[in-house]
Amino acid sequence: MKKNISKLLILLLILGGAVYMFQTYSIGEKLGRLVVIMGNIAHSLQNAKHAYEDVDISISDDELRDINISKISREMKSSLDKKRELIAPKAPIGIKADEVRAEEMPHHNKLEAKEAKIVKLEDLPEKFKPLKKYLHEPFRMGACQICHDSNSKNPGALIQKEIQDICYECHKTRYTKEFDHAPVKDGKCTDCHDPHQSNVKMLLKSDSINNLCMSCHDRKSTSATKAKKLFVDMSLETKHKPIVEKSCLECHEAHTANHKSLLKLDAKMDLCLNCHDDEKEKITHSKFKHGGVNTSQKRCLECHDPHATKHKKLLKKDPVATCLSCHDKEVKSDEDGGMLMNMKKHLDENPNWHKPIKDVKKEGGCSACHDPHGSDNFSILRKSFTKNFYAELENKDFFCFKCHTEKKITKQFITPQENNITAFRDGNVNLHYLHVNDRKGRSCRACHDEHASKYNHLIRDYTDFNGVKFPLRFIETAEGGSCAPACHKKFEYDRVNPKGISK
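Structure (tokenized):
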């Protein structure tokens, strides 16, 4: 029974092989291969069971010299074309199937016209030795004639006049987006890539991606003219983290992109928020958004440099100067449509600045109080704060005490050892306490300007009461001072000789 099954299987193999050969090979080849098959069958019958062993598939030096690259290329193309006709999807409207395949398959027309020979790596010219870590595939194969014309009198002559025409034979489908890198557009592939070998991936001509980019985009570089004034100064103190820890390719495409500056995503915000998840939630869901990220054309780039600056947070200027780039005039508020004051003018006219503005490096500038991206609090404040003139002490809207000690308003009497808590006292009576500890306690903003004033202690020139401005008439003395707000009488205080204001 087993013998009959074996004979049947052998017969089927013979018939299958015969059908395959008559469909594939010429008559001479058919007869030759039939003899080989019959010999193999006879050997199999004679030696009974098949023994499975490791097969040596290495190619000898003699075989290498006889390999015809042109023929292999033609055969591979023919075979792939047949398979594509069976499995490839229909071509897009207006494009023929042949054109689609032409985009995918490299053609080496001049190469096909002659017999090409493999060049062994050890037989390469000395200038290519020692070999580097990464080899271009044709170079590794020793298939020099894929790119070079062996019939030319000039060593290293190319099969086509322009090198990019050779590169695009294989890499054609890469350059199909709206914006191209200048070397790609100009066909200067070898500005960045070595056509033979390199110690860096992607056959780069530099020791790193960043250094390759900077070879053109550094103003001081000998190749700076190639960058068309798109310069980056990476010598500055604060550098964008992706550039330092990874490479320029974290944000940019190397060859072609659908966004300006070869960015991988929209430069306005999408690209930045792809990494800055902490700000994404704030910007997209905050009740109040900063105009810079809400309505500005540049969005994040309005304030930040994406590469390097001499300021923290990659700001283009110091924090206050950054804010005053826009707030040097009246600006329409995104919150309520009202007009925000010309802050630059206000600071110029009032020499006593709030400490965060005065000491930017230490205190942080405007962002000490305001969140520059977005907030659920009015005026994009970092914490809640009352808009009202009156504020009860129990109300937790005393944002000022994020920095200032709460003892300024919680201690009714100040001992001599606590004089540094506040200078606003009549003898040892804390006048801040008197101002706020009442059903009609005044908020800090009733008397103090949060940005700048012509008086010490940021005392306002006018106080705003329900939209009406009343003069405070503050006068400072060596040991105290006085005020006569609106139509009220004059109140005096003195730290050394109390005026009895507590009464």
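Confidence is low (pLDDT under 50) at residues 47-61, 63-69, 83-114. The two ends are 124 Å apart (CA to CA).
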